[in-house]
């Protein structure tokens, strides 16, 4: 396989280090849960976010998912899409503004993959071959960025503590920054963190502390009952 990366294509600043769970990826890309599961299992698109027991997708992952959907709609085979996605990950544009993205285009004939930044480059390549799959990656990036910015600032994250299931309500503090979490089942378990992952991890610890306190109080109550009955 031949690939080409134009130096000008490394021109986009991704949306921070924000990671999203599968339900938000489905909302942004239109992919189904079945597709995301299949892509993960086959290695076509493995979520590269931190492993917290749930699939977490980074911004480049979301762009890759949108690219897969676009190529699939154009009739590109999964094998050909795999080559294109591998190239996209290798040549992902990490530092650019909207102007540079406007003409960023991915082209593939199934064997060769190009990422080009202006119409002349695109025409030069297309003139050499009769069949090309063409995707305006820059447009997909801008769409994904806009969609990511409109995601809710509050959501419920399922967690497991002491082999039991709990739910953490995660809220982005727009005034102070960072994130606050509170357990739905144990409202006394409240914590915060600079990132969603940090807040959720602290929330797990808070749940564990509340459970330990409740267990200790239950033991003390049983001890008093035994002494009283004696």
Q: How would you sum up this structure, described in words?
A:
- With 230 residues, the protein is an alpha+beta fold.
- The protein folds into two domains: 2-149, Multidrug-efflux Transporter Regulator, Chain: A, Domain 2; 154-229, 2-Layer Sandwich (Double Stranded RNA Binding Domain).
- The protein is 46% helix and 20% strand.
- It has eight helices and ten strands.
- It has helices at residues 22-29, 33-42, 59-73, 78-90, 98-101, 119-126, 137-149, 196-229, and strands at residues 2-5, 20-21, 56-57, 105-108, 112-116, 133-135, 154-161, 164-172, 179-183, 190-193.
- A four-stranded mixed β-sheet has the order 1-5-4-6, with helices on both faces.
- β9 and β10 form a beta hairpin.
- α3 packs antiparallel against α4 (78-90) and α3 (59-73) crosses α7.
- It starts with a strand and ends with a helix.
Using brief descriptors, characterize the structure shown:
4-stranded antiparallel beta sheet, alpha+beta, 10 strands, 4-stranded mixed beta sheet, 8 helices, single chain, 230 residues, 46% helix, disordered N terminus, Double Stranded RNA Binding Domain
Structure summary:
The chain is α+β, with helices and mostly antiparallel strands.
**Low-pLDDT runs:** 1-16
Strand order of the largest sheet: 1-5-4-6
CATH fold node name of the largest domain: Multidrug-efflux Transporter Regulator, Chain: A, Domain 2
Number of helices: 8
Approximate shape: elongated
Radius of gyration: 24 Å
């Amino acid at each position: 396989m031949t690939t080409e990366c134009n130096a000008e294509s490394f021109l986009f600043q991704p949306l921070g280090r924000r990671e999203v769970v599968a339900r938000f990826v489905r909302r942004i890309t239109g992919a189904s849960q079945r597709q995301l599961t299949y892509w993960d299992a086959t290695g076509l698109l493995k979520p590269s976010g931190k492993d917290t027991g749930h699939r977490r997708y980074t911004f480049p992952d979301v762009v890759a998912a949108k690219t897969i959907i676009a190529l699939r709609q154009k009739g590109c085979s999964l094998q050909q899409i795999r080559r294109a996605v591998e190239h996209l990950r290798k040549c992902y544009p990490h530092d650019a503004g909207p102007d540079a993205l406007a003409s960023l285009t991915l082209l593939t004939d199934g064997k060769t993959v190009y990422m080009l930044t202006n119409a002349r480059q695109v025409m030069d390549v297309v003139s050499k071959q009769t069949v090309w799959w063409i995707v305006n990656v820059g447009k997909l990036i801008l769409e994904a960025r806009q969609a990511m910015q409109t995601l809710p600032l509050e959501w419920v994250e399922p967690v497991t503590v002491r082999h039991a299931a709990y739910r953490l309500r995660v809220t982005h503090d727009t005034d102070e920054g960072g994130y606050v979490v509170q357990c739905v089942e144990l409202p006394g378990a409240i914590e915060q963190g600079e990132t969603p992952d940090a807040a959720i991890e602290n929330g797990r610890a808070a749940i564990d502390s509340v459970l330990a306190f409740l267990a200790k109080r239950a033991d003390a109550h049983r001890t008093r009952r035994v002494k009283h009955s004696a």
